[in-house]
Amino acid sequence: MNKRIYIIGAGFAGQTLALEIRKKAVFGQVAAFLDDDVEKIGRVIDGAPVLGPVESAAQALSPLSGDEAIIAMPSTTQDYQGKLYAILRGAGFQKIRILPAISQIIQGDAHLIQTRAIDPQDLLGRAPVPINLKESLAYLRGKRVLITGAGGSIGSELCRQLLSGGAERLYLFGHGENAIYQIDRELRLLQEEGVGERASIVPVIGDLKDAPYINFLLSRLNADVVFHAAAYKHVPLMEENPVAAVQNNLFGAENLLKAAQAHGVKRFVHITTDKAVEPRSVYGMSKYLCERLVAETASTAESGAFMAVRFGNVLGSRGSIIPLFEKQIAKGGPVTVTHPDMKRWFMSIPEACSLTLKVGGVGENGRLYLLDMGDPVKIRDVAEQMIRFYGFEPDKDVKIVYTGVRPGEKLDEKLVSSDEKTLETGFNRILRVEKITPPTEDACAFREWIERLRPICYFDEHQSAAYRDAALLRETLHDMFNGV
What we know:
Shape: globular
CATH superfamily of the largest domain: NAD(P)-binding Rossmann-like Domain
Number of domains: 3
Number of helices: 16
């Protein structure tokens, strides 16, 4: 007997999923829709009744072990999704999937392949702002787009959303072959299932630190737009490997910017971080310098637009606290939090990427943009919410222990520095960052600082003692920040 599938939400997205399930009977059959809308309750849609309200209807069901519930309400809030999850678990559903709240789905383009098991990040943070993604990506129609770090958390989501842009070609650039293989296969499978528009997908393996190769690559790809998401990002790990952080993040970005400028890239979007604001870590300093590098490139660009987009933490990225907490809870704890007062801004990866893609189209040359991150959240509160998501009580069933602030970390991150201000752009949740007082340092002086770092990262026989000298690197970065 085919498993029964209950779709929560009888709107357009739910009906689209039901139609696809019926066509592909191998997945099971839609037993019913559950909805709170009194105008829908009692109707029969494609042979399946609409039951409701959701809470009372779910309690009346007796789901079998193989039965499944799919929450198909992509425009609803996280609070309501959390309520639905609790109702369905209470009704006995063991398998609960969700249609993520991404803008392609809000526009009605829902597909079964886009559903996935619900997890804690779906219930954290705030409701994402609806963005008409196809409209936002109109500037990419017929263009060739290069995404660096395409196998990472941000890069891969940029790729998924770019499928809706009508681009001629997507170049997936990264140095990790497995990550690029995975996103390449995923995008092709999404296309096979009707997600997005047809674009040629080209995986490219390479290293941003290899300047001749990057220049050669950009000369051959004829890329119109570049989204630069590649970076070493793990703060404590980069404190232990500071030269690698600067070589990859700063000089990798320099190689890419030079090549993009030389070979006619029309729009270049560099993704930066709140850790670049009054940086305390090597990672933060490397990204601060990248922001300056983008501005310097923009000031000399004869054509094209070079810009940066700054935002804080994203939920569920590799190396973030969400996957770590999940593993810690799965083994019974303890869940480790560095400090009870540590706070961070959080945004979902799909929302951050949708807004970044929007900036790519409306941003101006030389500008630094900031995504509105909402209010900061205590890491302890995130840990407690996740523990409850898995059916446990914090500090009763699963302990929370404090391990201390790690090197390079702050208790609170800032989105703008004391010498910056934000201005409205006219686009929801996108701000422009400007210096309160113009910098006194000229481009030549900034370039001199960069050249002081180069022999530390790349061997120079005339300055061989500097090569890979981590202490000299830290000293130079310290002097550099105080001098710029």
